[in-house]
Design brief:
The radius of gyration is 24 Å and the shape is globular. A hairpin with a 2-residue loop joins strand 14 and strand 15. It has helices at about 35-50, 65-75, 100-105, 130-140, 160-170, 190-220, 240-245, 250-265, 340, 355-360, 375-395, 435-440, 460-475, and strands at about 1-10, 10-20, 20-30, 55-65, 80-85, 110-115, 145-150, 175-180, 225-230, 235, 270-275, 280-285, 290, 295-300, 300, 310-315, 320-325, 325-335, 405-410, 420, 425, 445-455, 485-495, 500-510. About 30% of the residues lie in helices and about 25% in strands. Among the domains are: about 75-200, Rossmann fold (3-Layer(aba) Sandwich); about 315-435, no CATH class; about 445-515. By secondary structure, the chain is α/β, with parallel strands linked by helices. Strands 11, 12, 13, 16, 19, 20 and 21 form a 7-stranded mixed beta sheet that branches. A 6-stranded mixed beta sheet has the order 3-2-1-4-9-10. It contains 13 helices and 24 strands.
Length: about 525
């Protein structure tokens, strides 16, 4: 049985077919404005190219920036009612206090602070006031809102108030889509609350998108399960993704890094994924992308869910090249998926980084005679500028002064000249141009726990065991084979500013997809 991996980028949609550990076929198509059409075309094309029938496909894995694009553009978002359970705490900073005004205006439908919430050790701040909550629900109904975000102080430690509040909201507003903050974020109220609100505003789009995917699968006679890749490079089912679209935000760079590790056989390396618009530079540690220690920023909004540590620069195959005096200026504006219409080698009138690479002889594509008017001295300076941009990004990402290999991925990797970037050697593994789709196809399933434990009241070993068991349970619930689930990450952080030997424990479990 075969697996199909698809990664939908801003410029290209990549698809691969895997038979076990072997890449059978790969393909690269231009991304369409309608993401569903692009995915359907990619499936049809790669299956036809490899002569693979629908009944021999065991699973399809998709990575997409569809929901991130919706946030950035402020389109297809629904208004959200926000309920914060906090008692008298946190009142000085209201929900969405640090949001960009335009996005806040597009999403904010109703905000209410209510009694409830917990202290760091799980003890209540105040009891949840069910009567006031029901009154808030009636106001939400009057406003015609059906997307609700519930956040409670220290919800990752004790989620009881959020769970009860959700039950009451659903009893008062049947059919409402409710997101609870402890399901989408870590400790840190404002960032977790923002992630919760973002998820809530995307849920209707998630439902429509995955219904369209199901229709496309039906047309192609694919009866296999559909999975989406998460920010950390692991999988979730389509139904889970429809419920939590926020988890797909950074799947593209993560897929590329996981695919790079698989194709190259390296577990520790820098990965540069050069697409049509940006070059994403990340670090592989033991085969997985290094996670960012900072809160992730999505569409200008600070959140705190898991994201890879990626440094992006505005250099891609579609980057527009300009001239200031005799100095080349490359990006950050890109022609994106319109490369084959706008780029000069394809008959367009826009000079792109791809044109420069073709003119310099780095690879062959399109009509090189359309570039005859370019001065080769300018072309050489532009190529050098691209290498400098990449070298600067690599230096920023290197964990030490020691040399570390660089794995190139993405169709835009043809922009790289030679076999070294700075002091590091460059590796171009087989199928490197579709590494992102490979990363989607090989992805595993994860579960994570992030809680604060009072170790004076609960023995450390018992707290660790409880966290590990919960992480494994979450991985199995997400679709992992129970026999393959293992703990891959344990992090303990003593919180000296809190009493009772308070310690933050974060545990991550990963397992293979249940066949």
């Amino acid at each position: 049985m075969y697996r199909i991996g698809i990664d939908v980028g801003g410029t290209n949609t990549d698809a691969v077919i895997l038979d076990g550990q072997r890449v059978v076929e790969s393909a690269k198509l231009s991304t369409t404005e309608d993401v569903i059409t692009g995915v359907t075309s990619a499936l049809e094309f790669v299956m036809g190219k490899a002569n693979v029938s629908a009944d021999s496909v065991s699973a399809v894995m998709i990575g997409t920036t569809h929901f991130l694009n919706a946030l950035v553009e402020g389109s297809n978002l629904n208004k959200v009612a926000v309920l914060r359970l906090c008692g008298n705490s946190t009142m000085s900073l209201q929900p969405m206090v640090d949001w960009p005004p335009v996005l806040k205006g597009a999403v904010s439908g109703y905000v209410c602070t209510l009694p409830g919430g917990a202290e760091y050790d799980g003890s209540p701040i105040t009891a949840l006031d069910v009567g006031l909550l029901r009154e808030a629900c009636q106001e939400i109904k009057r406003l015609g809102l059906d997307s609700v975000a519930i956040s409670s102080v220290f919800a990752p430690v004790k989620a009881d108030d959020e769970i009860l509040a959700k039950e009451i909201v659903l009893s008062e507003i049947p059919g409402a889509r409710v997101t609870m903050s402890h399901e989408v974020g870590r400790l840190g109220l404002l960032a977790r609350e923002s992630a919760c609100i973002l998820n809530a505003c995307l849920q209707n789009l998630g439902k429509k998108t995955f219904s369209a995917f199901e229709s496309a699968f039906s047309e192609l006679k694919l009866n296999c399960p559909l999975f989406l890749t998460q920010n950390d490079g692991t999988l979730m089912s389509a139904s889970y993704a429809a419920q939590f679209p926020i988890f797909t935000m950074a799947s593209g760079p993560t897929n590329s890094m996981r695919g790079a590790a698989f194709l190259s056989g390296l577990k520790n390396a820098i990965v540069i994924d050069i697409g049509g618009t940006t070059s994403d530079i990340g670090l592989l540690v033991d085969g997985f992308p290094r996670e960012s220690t900072q809160g992730a920023e999505v569409a200008g909004i600070r959140t705190n869910f898991k994201m890879p540590d990626v440094f992006s620069i505005g250099l891609g195959g579609g980057s527009i090249v300009d001239k200031v005096g005799e100095t080349p200026v490359i990006g950050p504006v890109s022609v994106g998926y319109r490369l084959k219409k706008k780029s000069r080698i394809f008959g367009g009138d826009t000079l792109t980084a791809t044109d420069i690479a073709v003119s310099h002889g780095l690879f062959k594509l399109g009509d090189v005679s359309a570039l005859a008017d370019l001065e080769q001295s300018f072309v050489s300076r532009a190529v050098d500028k691209m290498q400098e941009m990449l070298s600067s990004g690599v230096e920023r990402m290197k964990p030490s002064k020691q040399e570390i290999p660089i794995i190139l991925t993405g169709g835009g990797s043809v922009l790289v000249k030679g076999e070294r970037i700075g002091e590091c050697r460059v590796i171009r593994p087989p199928h490197y141009a579709a590494a992102n789709a490979v990363g989607a196809a090989i992805a595993q399933v994860s579960g994570e726990v992030d809680k604060v434990y009072a170790l004076e009241r609960e023995h450390r070993d018992l707290a660790l065991e409880a966290a590990k068991s919960e992480a494994k349970r979450k991985a199995i619930t997400a679709g992992a084979n129970p026999d393959t689930v293992e703990i891959v990450e344990v992090d303990e952080t003593p919180l000296a500013y809190l009493p009772n030997n308070a310690t933050r424990i974060r545990v991550k479990a990963i397992g293979d997809l249940l066949a």
